[in-house]
Design brief:
One of its GO terms (molecular function) is hydrolase activity. This protein has 374 residues and is α/β, with parallel strands linked by helices. Helix content is 32%, strand content 24%. The mean pLDDT is 97.
């Protein structure tokens, strides 16, 4: 029996058990099955588990709290149990080990990282000496669709905490995340007038043609130098090739690096109007994840983690990324460090994998953060 409490094989076996319960966001029954397993892992620990019933087609959320340190701001650990992979995907991507890679749906994003945080907490409980701060671990069921049912909970817990640690996967060879773009989503609905395209085209008002105008206006807002991206990702419209299209629809994603960009561009998109008489353009939407800008408190938290990593024998670099996470909700008001999960590649793909060599050092880093933050 190994005396190493961070033995890779033991931790990987725990990750496997979580991965083998498929948990697509849209299958709350499956997410709850995984939540059952996660909650059972705290039964023998000095911790309480609160289960918040799912709603609006999403699964339950779990809030686990250490029995110590809950009377003062402490450490909040954010994880999600849902994945983007549909049911049955595990047949295409079964759990398997090949060299330094372990494969499986959601193993990198983010069951690997969520399990590391749980394992590190188990070890803190086994250490005997209690760390200075209480630890709250929040497992949500809907991060992959923008956290609609968990956002208020995340923000409330984030405001109560002194530090937030997010177990999203590492980036680019183990980098942790100290900044993320804000994410906005919009729906474009266009109504025109139908007509026969061959005999009476002059009677029609094409919603599709007007959608072309709107798309050009949206595309013109892209500014890669500034870090602003606007993507028209879904378009639908019309009924038949010989009918002037009465309706057209689009879904739009925007990413912005700062709140100033959001304050400028969200109203600009919502204010787009029709350039064609007899055609209406309606755009709805909002910023659903604020930008995660690197604050002084966040920078100090990163420097602390970097020092701990050096003591453990590895270099910890940081990165700014375009993808959003639940860390976006806490970073505006609480020191937040993201990307603390496993290293690997292929999030949301058919080759998703974690690097086995990253398991022990990343678990030890979380453990040292729990022990040393004050």
């Amino acid at each position: 029996m190994s005396s190493n409490p961070f033995e890779t094989a033991v931790i990987l076996d725990g990750i496997r058990r979580w991965v083998e319960i498929e948990s697509p966001t849209e299958r709350p029954d499956q997410v709850n099955k995984l939540a059952d397993l996660v909650a059972s892992g705290y039964r023998d620990l000095p911790a309480t588990v609160e289960r918040i019933a799912g709603r609006d087609g999403c699964g339950d959320h779990l809030v686990t709290r250490s029995s110590w340190g809950q009377d003062a701001p402490g450490i909040l650990v954010l994880s999600h149990l849902d994945t983007v992979h549909p049911m049955g995907f595990i047949e295409r991507l079964p759990f398997k080990v090949d060299g330094d890679s372990a494969f499986g749906p959601g193993i990198y994003d983010m069951k690997g990282g969520a399990y590391l945080a749980y394992h590190a907490f188990r070890q803190v409980c086994a250490d005997g000496a209690r760390p200075p701060l209480g630890i709250t671990q929040l497992y949500v069921s809907d991060e992959e669709i923008g956290s609609p049912t968990s956002r208020a909970l995340i923000e409330a817990e984030g405001r109560k905490a002194k530090y937030v640690l997010v177990t999203e996967p590492a980036r680019d060879g183990g980098k942790i995340v100290t900044g993320r773009k804000g994410v906005a989503r919009f729906d474009v609905t266009i109504k025109g007038a139908p007509a026969h395209a061959g005999t009476r085209p002059e009677d029609g008002r094409s919603a599709i043609r007007e959608l072309g105008n709107v798309i050009q206006a949206l595309e013109a807002m892209n500014d890669l130098k500034r870090g602003v991206t606007v993507n028209v990702g879904v378009v639908r419209g019309g009924t038949k090739p010989n009918v002037i299209a009465e309706e057209a629809f689009a879904e739009v994603d925007m990413r912005v690096p700062t709140m100033a960009d959001a304050d400028e561009l969200v109203p600009k998109i919502l204010g787009i109007t029709s350039r064609t008489e007899g055609v209406s353009v309606k755009i709805s939407g909002e910023l659903n994840r604020p930008p995660y800008e690197k604050s002084n408190a966040g920078a100090a938290l990163y420097e602390h983690a970097k020092g701990l990593a050096a003591e453990l024998g590895f270099e910890l670099a940081d990165v700014f990324t375009g993808g959003g996470s639940d860390g976006n909700f806490t970073a505006p008001h609480t020191a937040t460090l993201d990307g603390l999960g496993v290293d690997g590649k292929g999030a949301h793909t058919h080759y998703e994998q974690l690097y086995i060599s990253s398991i022990e050092p990343r678990a030890r880093l979380l453990h040292r953060l729990y022990q040393t933050l004050r």
